[in-house]
Amino acid sequence: MVTVTGPLHTPHHAIDIIRTKCDGSELSEAQIDWIIAAYTANEIADEQMAALAMAVLFRGLSRQELDCWTRAMINSGERLDFSGLSRPTVDKHSTGGVGDKITLPLVPLVAACGAAVPQLSGRGLGHTGGTLDKLESIPGWRASLSNEEMMRQLEEVGAVICSPGPGLVPADRKLYALRDVTGTVESIPLIASSIMSKKIAEGASALVLDVKVGSGAFMKTLESARELAQIMVDLGRAEKVTTVALLTEMSVPLGRTAGNALEVAEAVEVLAGGGPSDVVELTVALAREMIAAVGRDDHDPVDLLASGAAMDVWRSMIKAQGGDPDADLPVARETDVITAERDGILQSLDARAVGEAAWRLGAGRTRKEHAVQPGAGVVLHAKPGLQVRGGQPLITLHTDTPEQFGRAHEALATAYEIGDSAPEEQPLILGRVT
Ligand code: URA
């Protein structure tokens, strides 16, 4: 048992806190402040924090506990301050999905509308890709910036996508890694406090959340996604950050690609005024929410995509971080094609299975320290509702490690279905939470 004199100079015992939560009683603010600070300072054993996370998974956190928990997480590190910038700041967070490359066109688009977007992103683990992994497929581009470099780029370009510094919510870095290996990721209060502590500490004055729903997302049902979204919106408000959430469809992958360089190429198509209609629709919808939240909605994002203004910001943003926006993107050494077995209409295309196939081909990692293959992934030639002919390519697999083709085929074996009637159309945007 570990006893530490905590931040409020109150001695607490980890085991009492675990028991209190297991019994379903409420933790005090002092207990929460103490345990988060002590865990961050390595004064609480991982197994004790894991037991508490499991108790929270089963018992939940009250509104009051969740506010205290999130604030204690924010206070474990630094809070960035962008109040000196000449533009209003707004950020976006997606709960993660397959083929979700929206951040790439969205950040420069919103900057082209006159806001500043400080987007601190992560690397992927498992079947959803990380934004930094995608951008690192651009030759020369670097993810790590000092706070001063970030501030300068925000003032000059208006758009930054980079990795968070070590001072930002260190409590979450430890706790998220622990949850990942103890089966305690899927707790709505722990997900909400993890995401919102980082987003609030990042210091933007407004935040738009893209909460994904479906097989390729954390939240499998609209009901659970709405619950998570409402909790996060309320947490943002409590910290005076204007926060809005969209609930968006993630049963089918977004766009036509899943994989790092493949997704960058698709994002550049959108910035050039083309690209798949679902990627464009979601990019524009999120951009509208972001600019409305900071009073820059005198611009129409559709016009700024068409005029090339968003592309100009993209090029400046990539160059400012050492990247060459004109360089050829990496291409995988081997490809393999899955074809339609008969004529018909594609009924479904399971996001989770496509994400898993891309991951097995080398686009994602199984452990934090693994490298990803920049060219690996999946290209989708048809989406649900489309007429296909027997023998026509449906999916192309890309990898440098062709021995993985078999595992990718296994992942995709039941991922799609060809039928005779048109499937019911699913809207992309399923709800809005304020
Ligand atoms: N993303 C996060 O940052 N934290 C979680 O707990 C889940 C997803």
Description:
By secondary structure, the protein is α+β, with helices and mostly antiparallel strands. It has 3 domains: 3-60, Transferase, Pyrimidine Nucleoside Phosphorylase, Chain C (Transferase, Pyrimidine Nucleoside Phosphorylase, Chain A, domain 3); 90-320, Pyrimidine Nucleoside Phosphorylase, Chain A, domain 2; 334-419, Pyrimidine nucleoside phosphorylase-like, C-terminal domain (Aldehyde Oxidoreductase, domain 3). Helices cover 42% and strands 16% of the residues. The chain is built from 16 helices and 15 strands. It has helices spanning 14-22, 29-40, 46-59, 63-74, 103-112, 131-135, 147-156, 170-180, 188-201, 222-238, 260-271, 277-293, 301-306, 309-320, 351-363, 405-412; strands at 3-5, 11-13, 90-94, 117-120, 159-162, 206-213, 242-249, 257-258, 334-339, 344-349, 377-380, 387-388, 393-399, 416-419, 429-433. The strands form 5 sheets. A 4-stranded mixed sheet has the order 3-6-7-15, sandwiched between helices. A hairpin with a 5-residue loop joins strand 1 (3-5) and strand 2. Helix 1 (14-22) packs parallel to helix 3 (46-59), helix 2 (29-40) crosses helix 8 (170-180) and helix 5 crosses helix 12 (277-293). The longest helix is centred in the middle third of the chain and has 17 residues, at 222-238. The radius of gyration is 22 Å and the shape is globular. The chain starts with a strand and ends with a strand. Residues 1-8 have low confidence and may be disordered. Bound molecules: uracil (URA). Uracil (URA) is lined by residues 176, 185, 190-191, 194-195.
